[in-house]
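Dissemination and training. As part of the outreach component of the grant, students in the summer workshop were shown how a complex can be specified as a set of sequence lines and then modelled as a single object. The example used during the hands-on session is reproduced here so that future cohorts can follow it. Participants entered these lines:
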Amino acid sequence: MPSFQIFEFTRKNLLTLLSNSHTSIENIELKNHFEYLNSYLGKNGLNAKSIIVEENYISKDFFSDYSAYYSFCYQNYSKYCKRLHFFSKEFSEFDFHTAMLRNENENNWVNECYLGYIVVKPIPYTVIGTTILKTYKSKEIDDYRKFFGIRSYSVNLFGFSLKIDSLAFQEQDSVLSACATTAIWSTLQKAAVIDYHVNIKTPFEITQDAAKLSIDGGRLFPNNGLTIYQMCQALTNAGLVVEVRNEPKDLTNLYLKKIIHAYAPISIPIILGVEVPTGHGYGLHAIAVSGYRLPEFKPTSPVKHISWIPNYIDKIYVHDDQYGPFARIEFNGDDSLKSDWSNKESTKVVAILIPVFHKIRISYDDVESIIVVVDNMLSYAFNDIVKHEFYWEIQVLFSNDYKHALKLSELPVKFKEEIIYENFPKYIWVATCKVGNIKVFDFVFDATDIANSCFLFRITAYDKDLKNSLKEFLVKNNAFARFIKHPNSFMFYDKIITSLLS
Amino acid sequence: MARLNSNIFKSGVKLEAKEINFSNAAIKKDMNELVAMQSTILTRKSVNIENLKQVVQL
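and obtained this result:
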């Protein structure tokens, strides 16, 4: 007799299956998570048709929390969870059973229609454990979404190894973890697969890494939240380093877009501290950004100020432990956000925590301060003769990814060879300049260097005439060097000129 | 002389390296603004220590 049950995906069935002996269906229905997940998995989302229930499932994350805390309660909490698997196909028990007995390579309908799972924890109210769900399909022909924070998971089910691209989510249990811990937990899920120096940790371990005591001097567990400083400590103990931006006047939506876009290529989710309405004022909440949407834009004629490609980002996707995975956030002007939290009142970012690998020492801002001068030079030199505005994007990349992308470019083979065989630092900042939609320059910086040094590594020019003309302009107007705000400004200026010679 | 890329340049234009008069008042003002902008960009890296103590708890 198979030890699983099949249910049709309906609101009522999802409600029943998310409840447990400590939490009633009525209470589940009141949770934001339920409405969010029902909609995410429903007709307008992943369009789930069936649910398979796997009983007596051991979840590593819950098991760690269980052994550290729940097992010491007098109340008899189970160590076993149940796991709900979602499929985009209706099938009978016989169909599924037959498929399971076959070799997974012979019959892959199970893999094709697999949408992911939700672990239901056997504790009161905070039942949503590790959740791995696919990102939903875009309704547009061109998918402008970029989910940089997702990874591949292998889900073991009855001898099958099901593959899914996602980022794990779970809600805080308010005992061993608050939102700060769960945002870090999701972030580490991705960072650990990119660099083996980073460790995946359970919520209990993350909170324990953050501090010895609660902020009020009381005990750490049950946990009432972490300070931004403690969050940085937990991330550092996991093997990352953190760049913090938390000066209120600087945290505009444009800056937020630029930062998310800039650090996306190293694929580590970025954590935001957001001020959200609580019904009786505002509170601080943590979310993990794993994607953004950047639609195409229509280039304008040249303008005086600098133009940023990430300014066109219109949505970001976040793991919000009070709602669910890949929740959409839109921008409201330049200083507030539209999210599930903000029905009437605004939500705004008060801190950005950028987890990076320790060798990335040059920050986005170091590069931007150089690029605003370069844009100024280009504007003086060419604004009256180019068709469109100069558009910029600045991103930190693995140098190997940059070389890979160059191979696919239309650069002459001679230049490709020159670049791919050149020794590069592991991490580079690439400031790409386009005239309208045409790429004209990559200013490549060594991300592992020291901010006081001349950290320009090379310039890749895609248009020979523009390159030669810029070089002549710079030679003729070397007084520009005085306006680069850098301890090595003259050397920087000379490096730009010599990089344009090759 | 080879033709310029028509996706980048307006038609009929010539590439000539201009000389900027840095003593011109408008350009001086522009350069001062450029330096100020760089200072603003670089100060974004400064962390507000007091705000690090804010508790993230929702």
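Residues 364-382 of chain A form the longest helix (19 residues). Students were then asked to discuss how this feature might be tested experimentally.
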